[in-house]
């Protein structure tokens, strides 16, 4: 058992129980482990196995936690599509990427599911609301300025008010690329 490196152990586990475990979960768990330690204690392996099995049973999915602000028109031009308005979803569910997810422009067109988890003022989040947005711009260079700088993403007013009280300038969010 001690000869397994961390990642191998997880892959071994998943093949052992013949699960179609999602590769992201395996890679998340693997990447969370120090790669330079090739010998790990049985205790640590047990803990990792526990996390792994728990993740299956509670349908754990990898979400990031961050913040969101909002912005209104004018939206053009954008850092992603210039003056091309046809890239905007007709639902108006879109957002600008903060630097953390901008990814040197690769974020353009990516879709995220976003939910509001908390805010400074109580009852700001609309309970149970999950939206899906498309990244169309870079937050730091949008034409109209966000309600708050430096957030993970800046939601269109339409998107923001679908999950939170629109009079808030900042909310805490959970988001996941889809
Ligand atoms: C939104 O927040 C404002 C300011 O806190 C408050 O006056 C208003 O009633 C809230 N709106 C809703 C729908 O809760």
TrEMBL record:
The keyword Transmembrane applies. Gene3D superfamilies: RlpA-like domain (2.40.40.10). It comes from Arachis hypogaea. Residues 66-178 form the Expansin-like EG45 domain. The chain crosses the membrane at residues 40-60. Keywords: Membrane, Transmembrane, Transmembrane helix. This is Expansin-like EG45 domain-containing protein. CDD domains: DPBB_EG45-like (cd22269). InterPro entries: Expansin/allergen_DPBB_dom, RlpA-like_DPBB, RlpA-like_sf. It comes from the Eukaryota.
